[in-house]
Amino acid sequence: MQTCAAVVCDMKNTTKITCTGVISALAVVLMLGTNIPVMLYTVPAIAGILFMIPAIELGAGWAFLCYGVTAVLSLILPTDREALVFYIAILGYYPILKMLIERMGKKIPEYVIKFALFNIAVIAAYEFTVRLLGVEAIDSQMLGAAVAKALFLAAANAAFLIYDICLTRMTALYFCKASKACQKSARYEGKILKAKRIAQILLNKTLDKCTKHGILMFADACIYAFKPGRHGILFYLRNKF
After folding, report:
1. Phi, psi values for residue 135, rounded to 5°
2. Distance separating alpha carbons of residues 231 and 220, to the nearest angstrom
3. Over the range 88-107, which residues count as b (16 or more CB within 10 Å of their CB) and which as e?
4. Quick one: which of 7, 66, 83, 178 could link to 34 by a disulfide (CB 3.0–4.6 Å)?
5. How many CB atoms lie within 10 A of CB 163?
6. Other Cβ atoms within 10 Å of 174 Cβ, number
7. How confident is the model at residue 10 (pLDDT cuts 50, 70, 90)?
8. What is the radius of gyration, based on Cα positions, of the chain?
């Protein structure tokens, strides 16, 4: 037979797996929207935001599991390959990694790491899509390829900064809503515990009274039984033997 701790552990793991499956399924559905040209980079960014929930509630490991499952399923399903590359390279896991990086508590080193990671990932994803997927390279007849790429990278960094700020605000909002829900739950549980304590005190008092009455009744019975009268045990024993 399983112990209570093992049953509780199994229930917790079942809840985590269910939550991971639901969020992964939602992210995959979103990734199918990458076939719409306007949503090429927006959808992967939104899909990555979903992984903040398991990262906060379950831990980074479960969030990375959601990211991996979504990436594998998106490879199988008919999603836009360019969007998928950028999702795998940076947009899918960045909201999870952001929470880990920000544990440092120092803004300047955090932003240095974030932007370095973003630029490396974007350049690698761009080269991959151009060289292996055959996506048309960024070019401009007026400015030239190098200037066009530099402008594209600058615009991407500006968008990344806005995205990072939005993630911070959304995380704060989530914690605010969750804390309010926890406070309500705590108040409700506090009332239940208070009621239980009152019931326990009343029960203890009742038991104490019952115990005292029982002891007194038992003492009275003993006294009555052994008293040297016609109704006592001593009278019966004396007559018997």
Report:
1. -70, 140
2. 13
3. bbbbbbbbbbbbeebeeeee
4. 83
5. 19
6. 14
7. very low
8. 35
Contact 68, 19 (CB under 8 A): no
Kindly give, in sequence order, each residue whose CB lies less than 8 Å from that of residue 37, ignoring residues fewer than 6 positions away.
Answer: none
Question: Which residues, at least 6 apart from 121, have a Cβ–Cβ distance to it below 8 Å?
Answer: 89, 90
Amino acid identity at 189: E
CA dist 208 and 192 (Å) reads: 24
**Residue 133 DSSP symbol:** S
Joined together, the tokens standing for residue 166 give 């939005």
HSE of 207, CA atoms in CB hemisphere, 13 A: 6
pTM over 0.70, yes/no: no
Asked whether the predicted pLDDT for residue 158 surpasses 60, the reply is: yes
Is 186 buried (19+), middle (13-18) or exposed (0-12) by CB count in 10 A? exposed
Q: How confident is the model at residue 127 (pLDDT cuts 50, 70, 90)?
A: confident
Distance in angstroms (rounded) separating the CA atoms of residues 90 and 97: 10
Q: List, as one string, the DSSP characters of 157-211.
A: HHHHHHHHHHHHHHHHHHHHHHHHHHHHHHHHHHHHHHHHHHHHHHHHHHHHHHH
